[in-house]
């Protein structure tokens, strides 16, 4: 039962497999057959049986179908055999018909061939005529081209070539003669390019040689225009205002009108002589070459060549001669060549399209400007002549104005002019330093004497001096200052004029010019004049009298500074009340010089006192005084009296300070003389003699050699000496020791160390010369007293050192 059940389950599976085999492509039968072997045992055998049964069924169906269609197949074969017989008959009939047609059309074919031959000949003739009509214009145009080449009408020849290539050659391009012509055209173009390039080279060489003439003409035109503008401005009082002062004289307005008329007349005379750049240079080679290369489509090559050659020429033009800085002509040639170069470039820029662009000219100008500035900065540094620098400045201004009129930016050139202006100022300062030195060397350092009204007015015209008291005095009379003061004042104004010459035409406002003039004048006063004054004061041959006169001179120069400010204001027409107006520093300059002179007076006065003190010849072992002061001291006092009389023209404080300084220095010198370490012993008689000299000093101080001291202020300079000498001559040691350190002490200014030093010198003298012989009875007591005082003084000195 199990096997029968198993067999029933297998049969449908075999049927499914057979259906798959029948319906599936033979390439995919493999998996289906593999499933037969993967089934239960004996499944293969059963499947084969099932397969055989299926094959038998299909054989039966095929046999049935063949039996059903067999009769129709037999009938079709029979019909086909009948048709073959009819086809053979039809073939024979067609062949016969074709033969008859061929025989009938032979004559027609012969005539038709003749007609065709005639038609071909006719068509060929027509074609030849048409082609000749096409070729004749080409040949005529080519002949025209050869004529144009012979006549050197190259631009027209290029246009003819272009017309041949675009219009005529395409019509006859299939002919050999056309190919020959086409092959010859590039050679003709190259010939034209070479010829035009040769003309361009000649042109470039020509403008290189004539660039200085071109530049000179352009700069002359710019200078004439500038001269006319300046004259017009002067007439209208635009630039510096109506008040122009030269040596205190105004320029009359009629003079401005005369100058303007003269300028206009000169321009009219030179108008015909001045030529334009077109008159000086034939630019046709450039135009022709440019057109030729444009037609040839090689405009870029021409532009590059032109620009490259012009850049080379620019570098040659910008290279200065090594000795250019020696003369103005060297600078002028340098500028005219550069101007000529850029005038040509500007003309090319405006008359051609694309050959020279604004960007190219700007780049070339910036390169040239950097080189020009470097060259001018280097060469101008060698200039030491202010006139040469001024002429260079004028050339640079005309150079800049000329190029600016052609549209080139020149701000950096004016910035360079400010650098050159600083150099110009330095050169002027050096020159004026020499002028000031010469003035000081030639001065006699004494007041200016005048014996008549004319001489008085001459001095007043040179220097702004106002003194009602001096005006009322009768002739002859003297100005308080020396001759150098008006000379210095005049030279300062000349310096301002020299600076003004450089500041003109710099395209700066009056305010800026005013500021530049004031700053330059300040440099002259604070550096040059101040240095000359200080050097003068330090010179060994300048004595006290000269120093006094220098102080007086500086006082009047200081007062004249306000007139210098007014002078600059009149020139620039800028009020001093303007916020940004620079003030002159002359006040501080002359004050510093005056202080230096005062200090030198104090120093020289002390040196003179030292010279007198060195003449002192004291006998320090003198037993009794001479009864009169030393001769050197009396000479010194007389010298001081005469000197202080000269000081009456000085300001009060200066004279008082000098007098006090002299007295203090004299007191110090006398004190040092007593305490000199080389002086080993001093007798009481020498002290008394020394006291007589100090008394004369005190009398001199109390005589008020210089007015203005209050009470015994001047005598206090000798108070240290007075108290020291009183202590020794009175021998009041008990009072000194008892009151030491008290504010009300009688000997408050006596230093214990000073007293000890002098006492020891007198002690040594006592031992050797027995100067206290009159006290022989009390010699032991006196000696003991001196020893006691020395010990107490030493203790005071030690106490002071410990306290310090």
Mean pLDDT: 81
Question: Roughly how many Å is the radius of gyration?
Answer: 64 Å
Distance between the termini: 149 Å
**Which fold name corresponds to the CATH topology of the domain at 618-624 and 637-801?**
Methane Monooxygenase Hydroxylase, Chain G, domain 1
Tell me the major beta sheet: 2 strands, antiparallel
Question: Which CATH architecture of the domain at 618-624 and 637-801 would you pick?
Answer: Up-down Bundle
Shape: elongated
CATH class placement of the domain at 618-624 and 637-801? Mainly Alpha
Number of helices: 27
Characterization of this structure:
- The protein is mostly helical and about 800 residues long.
- Among the domains are: about 45-155; about 285-410, 5 helical Cullin repeat like; about 425-445 and about 480-600, Tetracycline Repressor, domain 2; about 620-625 and about 635-800, Methane Monooxygenase Hydroxylase, Chain G, domain 1.
- The protein has 27 helices and 4 strands.
- The protein has helices at about 1-25, 30-35, 45-150, 155-170, 175-235, 255-270, 275-280, 285-295, 300-320, 330-350, 360-380, 385-405, 410-440, 455-460, 470, 485-505, 510-540, 545-560, 560-570, 585-615, 630-645, 650-675, 685-700, 720-730, 735-740, 750-770, 780-804; strands at about 245, 250, 450, 475-480.
- The strands form 2 sheets. A two-stranded antiparallel ribbon has the order 1-2. The protein has a two-stranded antiparallel sheet with strand order 3-4.
- The termini are far apart.
- Belongs to the SEC15 family.
- Component of the exocyst complex involved in the docking of exocytic vesicles with fusion sites on the plasma membrane.
- This is Exocyst complex component.
